[in-house]
Fold:
Amino acid sequence: MIHLFRHRELYIELRPRCPKCQKEFMLDLKKFLPGRAHSCHACGTVVQFDGQLAGKVQNIIHDMEATIQEVYESFSSEKAG
Structure:
């Protein structure tokens, strides 16, 4: 699920499964940060986030937000007319 908020920040939600109990949980990718972890609400299993992958995801989100900002600005500029 992907949403864009008023201030042009992306909200991307994934629904991965716990590796132990297989219960689905919500993961906001903005909270998928290097050095962080997620604790399963069903069984308590703690999954550490891969630091390199989390950093890569955050860079991609930042780039997408910047590009979306450029799209918004292109519609409000005189070039659009």
Helices lie at 51-76.
